[in-house]
Amino acid sequence: MIKHYIKAARLRTLPLSVSGIIVGSFIAASQDLFNWKICVLALLTTVGFQIISNFANDYGDGVKGTDNNERVGPKRAIQSGVISPKQMLQAIYISIAITLILAITLIYISFGKDDFGNLLVFFILGILSIVAAIKYTVGKKAYGYSGFGDIFVFLFFGILSVCGSYYLYTKQFNFTLLLPAFSVGFLSVGVLNLNNLRDRVSDMQSGKNTLVVKIGEEFGKYYHYYLLISSFLFALVYTMLHYKSYFQFLFIISYIPIIQHFVVIYNNKIPKLLDPELKKLALSTFLFSLLFGIGLIL
């Protein structure tokens, strides 16, 4: 049974989920403001949010019938019957409890007991992250079924992840942080958009009105190109504004597989063949975060 929960946690999505934390942490480290305790707890908390999201996505799409035989991607836990909806709900509750403990510990270590303002703000952000993770597919007004998933992924995986993690270390905010935050956000939205391109037909048939369903496959591809190109440009602008060493251009290496991915999307005619590209783009985003960060401290 445990192996089914591990599969439902979708481990391949976890590197993508922590990419923003890695970027924010490296930027703080480049300013000699790094803290290992904050880093580990931030990574674990983010993984917790992602697992909640994956369990909730499995539950929401499973009970609504979105995950059916017409779906192109791999079978989900509830869809295949290896985990019941009731069991998945229990897994969601347990994940929420563990993640809340991690989040509260992270906030306390970062701000102490006397900084009530920051404690309250980040506790609220933690609650909102959990709500956003669940409401993507769960409930009658699930925002993933109305085409708003892209916005939430951009906000939570990009802006909140990069800027929020940086603030945990430094208690400061710099508007130029938005540039790498946009890069991570656009790449993360790219993974979601790719998933929606793959599942466009089955989503349309089941009433899941993703952005791709709304704008169509052709414009969904144009949108994808925009996300990939913009992510590169924002990272490049940040690097030029904060240039100290040519090592800061290391992140360009991560765009080699992204360019290959770009070509595959351009030539693709069969949605099922997009599935391997999800892993490629997710890992490329993770590689980007590592190389971008390493370039800052070399």
Please, could you describe this protein's structure?
It is built from 13 helices and no strands. Helices cover 74% and strands 0% of the residues. The chain has one domain. The model has no long low-confidence stretch (mean pLDDT 93).
The gist of it:
This protein has 298 residues and is mostly helical. Helix content is 74%, strand content 0%. Helix 11 runs antiparallel to helix 12 (255-267).
List keywords for this structure.
mainly alpha, 74% helix, 13 helices, single chain, 0% strand, 298 residues
Largest sheet: none
Structural class: mainly alpha
> Hey, roughly how much beta strand do the residues contain?
under 5%
Helix content: over 70%
Distance between the termini: 45 Å
Measured on Cα atoms, how large is the radius of gyration?
Answer: 19 Å
H/E element string? HHHHHHHHHHHHH
Instruction: Write down the domain tally.
Output: 1
Which consecutive residue ranges, at least 5 long each, have pLDDT under 50?
none
Question: How would you describe the shape?
Answer: globular
The number of distinct β-strands equals: 0
User: What does the average pLDDT come to?
Assistant: 93
Please work out how many helical segments DSSP would assign. 13
